[in-house]
Amino acid sequence: MEKQPVLHADIVLIGAGIMSATLAALLKQLNPDFSIVVLERLDVLAGESSDAWNNAGTGHSALCELNYTPEKADGSIDIKKAIKIFESFEESKQFWSYLIQAGVISQPDNFIRPVPHISFVRGEKDVNYLRKRYDAMKQYHLFDEMEFTTDRQKMAGWMPLIMEGRDENEPVAATRVENGTDVNFGALSRKIFEYLWRLPDVRIRLAHEVEDLKQQPSGKWLIEAKNLTTRNKTHILTRFVFIGAGGGSLPLLEKSGIPEGRGYGGFPVSGQWLRCINPAVIEKHQAKVYGKAAVGAPPMSVPHLDTRVIDGKKALLFGPYAGFSTRFLKNGSLMDLPASIKYYNILPMIKSGLDNIDLTKYLISQVTQSADDRLDALQEYMPLAKMADWKLEIAGQRVQVIKKDPVHGGVLEFGTEIVCAGDGSIAALLGASPGASTAVSIMLELLEKCFPAELATPGWQEKLRNMIPSYKQSLLQNDALYREVSEKSNAVLQLENKVTAQG
User: Fold this and answer.
1) Reduced DSSP (H G I as helix, E B as strand, rest coil) percent helix, strand, coil of the chain, to 5
2) In whole angstroms, what is the distance from residue 415 CA to residue 412 CA?
3) CA dist., res. 274 & res. 392, Å (int)
4) Chain segment 360-417, per-residue pLDDT in tens
5) Which domains does the chain have, with CATH numbers?
C-alpha cells in the first residue's frame, strides 16, 4: 500500500450526514479560516440515516408526535419536551433560511415542503388523552393553530384514506396543524456539502473508513482512515474531532478511549416501511398522520401514514415496522453489536435489557410478522388498504443509547446525547429521534461544550444571532419574537402554501 503523508486540519468530521453538514456549515460561517476534513465510509453523501428513504422525513416540531407528550400518573399531560422540540425545529428553520439568503444553498422546495401534521387516535381512553393534550398545548401561542375534532366528517376531509370504511361506532379523534413540514434531510445534507466541497480548505473524502483515532501528547488527534477503493491509508492530525456517524458513532467513541465514553452501550433497532405503489391512492392522502405507539415500542416505531415529497415526487409511506439486527448501520456488520460490548458497559446493557422486557417482546413480535400481519397493522389506520398497492422497503438503522445509571445500573435512552471529552477536543453524537430535525440545536450545544472560548467572543455571538435570531431566547416567552422569526423563515423556505407536489 502506498504510504500517504499526514494531513493537517482544524476540524475532522466523521460521517457525511445532516449532523456533520450542520456543524460544518455553522463552523465555516463562524470562522471561515477553519480547515475541515469530512470522512465518510460510503461512496455517497448522506447515504445512511439522513437519506430520505431511511427516515420519516417529518419536520419534528411535536405537533403530531404523541410520544413527546406523555400522560402523567395524575392524568395531566406533560408538554415540556414538546415545547423544547418545537423551539429547536424553529432554530433549524431559521438557520436553513439564513443559508438560503447567504447563498450557501438554494431551492428550498427540493428539501422542505409544507404538509399538515395530524394526530389520530382510536378508543375512548385515547380520545380523552388527545383532548387533554390539545387543551394543554393550546394554552401556548406556539400551538395556537392546532385544531381538535371528533367530527368524523371533518376527519374524512383531513384524511380520507384513514376514515373510509371505518367502523361508525368506534370512538375516534384527531388534531391537525396545517403548517407542518416534510423534510428531505438527505437532499439538505447534500446541498450543504456541495457548497463546502467548492471551498479550498474543505476536503470531503468518500469511501474512507476510520480505523483508529488516538490523542497525541500535544492534545491533537491522529486519525487513521482507509480508502475502501484503493486500500491506501490516510492519516490526519487535527485539533477537534466530531463523530457524527449515526449508529457507527459508538464503536468510534470506544476507540477514542476517552473516559467520558465509558459505560455507554447501544441497542440497535431496524425498521421497514410499506411504500404505496398506486398513484391514485398516493394522491388521496395529504398529511403526516401519527398514532400511538404500542406498549414497549421505541419512539421510531410510532405508526404513521406519511405524505412524502422525495426528489420532487409525491410518495406515501406507512410504518415503520420495527425489527432487530446486530448491525449499527444499514450498511454495517453483523458483528457491530457484539464488538461494542466491553467490560465497562456490559452491566448497564444487561440491566437496561432486564428493565425493558416489553421492548424485547415488542421487537420479537415485529421480527416474526408475516405479510398478513403487516397488512393488519396498516388496516388499523387505513381500513380499505390492499396489499397489492404496497411494497415492503427496508428503512434505516437506529441505535438507542444505553448508559450507566447510579440508581438503576443502566438505562435505555430514546433521545440524542452528546458525549464530549473533558478538554473539548472530541465529541460524539449518540442516539436517534428527534435527531435530524433538531440538528441545529444539538450542534449549538456542541459548540458550547467544545468551543466555549470562541463562543464567548462578541464576534461569534453576533454571527450566531444573525444566523439564528432566536438564539438564547425563548420563543415560548416571547410571542412577538416567535411571530417575527417564524414568518421570516417560512417566507424564505416557501412554506406559506399547501403542498403542490407533482406526482
Assistant:
1) 40, 25, 35
2) 9
3) 5
4) 555 555 555 667 778 888 998 999 999 999 998 877 766 666 666 655 555 556 668 8
5) 6-492 (3.50.50.60)
